[in-house]
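Protein record

Derive C-alpha cells from sequence
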Amino acid sequence: MTLLGYARVSTLHQSPAMQTKALTEAGAERIWTDRMSGARDDRPELAALLDYARRGDVLMVWRLDRLGRSLPHLLTIADDLQDRGIELRSLTEAIDTTTPGGRLIFHVFGAVAEFERAIAAERTAAGRHPGRPGLMAGTIAAAQALDQAGTPRAQIARTLGISRSSVYRSLDAATADATPSDHRELTPRLNISIPEAFDAPLPEAELAEWEKKDL
C-alpha cells in the first residue's frame, strides 16, 4: 500500500504549503499539486496521480473539496477509485474508505445524490423548476452523518455545497425534533466503541452497560 497525496489551490498566488505539510505528516510518500480552480476538469496533476495509482494504494487529500468540485463530481471520482481498488482518505473530515465507517459515509453521500436527482426529475416532470426551496432529506442525512463523525459545521457546508446557515438550521432542527418537550434525551449517550466490522460483537462490558440503562 502506497499513500499518495493530492493538493490543490485555486490560483498561482495561493500556497499549498499547509496542505502538503499535513499530507506529509500523515505519511504521504508522494504529493501531486494543481494550481487551478476545482471547477476545471483538466487538472493535469490529478490526472497524473490517478494514472500512477495502483490497486491497494490510498489517495489522501487535506479536504474533500480539494478533490471534487461538487458532491456529484466527488462521488464520480470515488466510484472510479473504488472500481480500481484504490482507497480514499480525507484528513479534515476524518473519512477513510479503508474503514467500515468511511465506506458507510460515502454510501450515504451516494444515496443523497441519487435521491436529489430523482426529486429534481419529479419536479421537472410536474412542471416545477428544480430550484432549492429547502434542504432535501438526503442532504440533511448527509449533514447529520458528517456532524456525528465530528466534522466542523463550516466544513460540512463546503463538502455538501450548501450555506453554513443551512447546515446550522438543519442540524439544530434535527436536534430539537429528537428531544422531548422536557428536554431529556430520547437515547442515553453511551461510551460504546464501534466494532472494526459491522458484524463483530460488542465487548460484554459495553453490552452490560447498555442493558442497565433505563430507556
Observations:
- The chain is about 45% helix and 10% strand.
- The longest helix spans residues 100-125.
